[in-house]
Amino acid sequence: MSRGRFITLEGGEGGGKTTQAGRLCDTLTARGIASITTREPGGAPGAEEIRQLLVAGETGRWDPLAEALLHFAARREHVVRTIQPALDAGTWVICDRFTDSTMAYQGYAQGLGRPAVEALEKAVLGDLRPDLTLVLDLPVETGLQRERNKGRYARMGVAFHQQVRDAFLDIARRAPKRCVVIDATHSIVAVSGAILAAVDRRLL
Ligand code: TMP
Q1: 124 lines ligand 1 (CB under 6 A)
Q2: What is the position in ligand 1's atom list of the atom closest to the CA of 99?
Q3: 135 has which bridge partners?
Q4: Residue 95: in which H helix or E strand, if any?
Q5: pTM for the structure as a whole
Q6: Which residue's CA is the closest to the ligand 1 atom numbered 16?
Q7: What is the pLDDT along the chain (204 residues), one digit of tens a residue?
Q8: Homologous superfamily assigned to 6-203
Q9: Using a 6 Å cutoff on CB, does residue 105 contact ligand 1?
Q10: What are the residue boundaries of the structural domains of the chain, listed by start?
Q11: 8 CB less than 6 Å from ligand 1?
Q12: Among the listed residues 130, 137, 129, the one whose alpha carbon sits nearest the alpha carbon of residue 181
């Protein structure tokens, strides 16, 4: 059986990643492709426990390197327990956030820098990379207004989230073979259409 494909959805707050992950999974399943959705931080029991340390509490509660390490600890559990077994079984995995989020939030916006995040990526994930990354892009103000859940990151302020948006666009520019930027200001149906077109073009 061939390995499943690994698709990640990335971008700032309020871009509709969770909704779009579910819609893509439904479409692929209807086409006869076994698919699951999962999310970060989370996607495995221990990783969901670590999530609570990250998404609640004071905005400044973690040192940026400690914060990146927590995200990678959660990611390691997620990969070992959920993502890799699914891919090995031939199942496609659609993941709501992955390493690009650590790069954008901790690496760029929290100032840790690209080399530190790249070193952690290599140590924790080896050669595992997404086959396709869809970056859902939209203006920061629109995203923060849409986001109903005002968790720790949503409270970090507009300037921080502008850095996050710019970071994702830079990440996509540096990895054009892996990443496709999707305009997330359009309707849910239109965004789903753009995502499906990218999946068909790049993976099918
Ligand atoms: P979400 O599930 O609503 O996307 O919330 C997760 C939050 O965690 C989101 O604001 C982005 C943040 N985050 C990071 O800062 N670094 C990471 O590596 C990941 C996966 C998420």
Answers
A1: no
A2: 18
A3: 10, 181
A4: strand 92-96
A5: 0.98
A6: 102
A7: 689 999 999 999 999 999 999 999 999 999 999 999 999 999 999 999 999 999 999 999 999 999 999 999 999 999 999 999 999 999 999 999 999 999 999 999 999 999 999 999 999 999 999 999 999 999 999 999 998 778 999 999 999 999 999 999 999 999 999 999 999 999 999 999 999 999 999 998
A8: P-loop containing nucleotide triphosphate hydrolases (3.40.50.300)
A9: yes
A10: 6-203
A11: no
A12: 137
User: How do strand 132-137 and strand 35-39 relate by DSSP bridges?
Assistant: unpaired
| Cα-to-centroid distance, 53 and ligand 1 (Å) | 12
C-beta of 163 in contact with ligand 1 (< 6 A):
no
Extract the tokens encoding 167: 């970071």
69 in ligand 1 pocket by Cβ < 6 Å? no
The Cα 41–Cα 72 span in angstroms is 9
Integer Cα distance of 185 and 171 in angstroms:
20
